[in-house]
Amino acid sequence: MNTVISFRDAFIINGENVVVNNLDMDVFQGDLVYIVGKVGTGKTSIIRTIIAENKLEKGHGVVCGFTLEGIKAKDIPFLRRRLGVVFQDFQLLMDRSVHDNLEFVLKATGWKDPGAMDTRIAEVLEAVGMQTKSHKMPHQLSGGEQQRIAIARALLNEPEVIIADEPTGNLDNETADGILSLLKKINEQKGTAIVMVTHNRSIFEKYPGRVFVCKDETCQENKGGEVIDLSISI
Questions:
Q1: Distance between CA atoms of 212 and 223, rounded to whole angstroms?
Q2: Sequential DSSP letters for 68-117
């Protein structure tokens, strides 16, 4: 089975501070992986390290074939083309249509043929059930629809893994369930690995996957099925 993300004895930083010590983590093709933990325990810092936004200065990390320690600035865009990233706040460009949001990403990642771009945009919009919304502006869409567009954007370059940082944090429960069902469908049908930071226990209970728990400056997989203490907001 292909390994898409691997950390060995990695120290994860946030600014100048180490927030996770000695991280060992493997994510394989087709995995659904959750990262949970209280605020400030390093969940998002792990995500930022995976996408090479935070430097990995100690330990070893490989993401989609790219070694993270010492990665050159010129190589980071190529790494990110192998990833799809979905944020809590959608991060759509509000001054252009859905089609033009997606076209912007394709052009930025090296696509040049207008016909091929239009075909790919239509494919990803259909995949997320938004094929009739291509002409809409983001402000004309609901929060759930905007997040579906963000997922379509993440799919454009057929990523090996989708990184989702609280993708349902700004959505009501019913809309959030639709987004999670969509991500699970992509995971199962495409074999795309998904790594998701979440604060919501019900998510990983309804859509089971591997769970890594961040606490006490560590992040370890909950392999034994122990009850994860979420009594304090995480």
A1: 9
A2: -TT--GGGHHHHHHTEEEEETT----TTS-HHHHHHHHHHHTT---HHHH
Alpha-carbon gap, residue 202 to 91, rounded angstroms: 25
Q: Which residues contact 103 (CB under 8 A, 6 or more apart)?
A: 117, 121
d(CA 141, CA 2): 37
Using DSSP, state whether 33 is helix, strand or coil: strand
Domains of the chain and CATH, by start? 1-82+191-200+208-234 (3.40.50.300), 83-158 (no CATH)
Q: Which tens digit of pLDDT belongs to each residue from 77-109?
A: 899 889 999 988 888 999 999 999 999 999 988
For the record, the structure tokens of 84 come out as: 């799809």
Return the CA Rg of the chain.
Answer: 18
Q: What is the pTM of this model?
A: 0.90
d(CA 128, CA 231): 34
The whole-angstrom separation of Cα 17 and Cα 91 is 27
Task: Identify which of 69, 62, 99, 97 has the alpha carbon closest to the alpha carbon of residue 83.
Answer: 62
Closest CA to 90 of 171, 200, 184: 171
Number of neighbouring beta carbons within 10 Å of residue 195:
25
Determine which helix (DSSP H) or strand (DSSP E) holds 4, and give its type and residue range.
strand 3-14
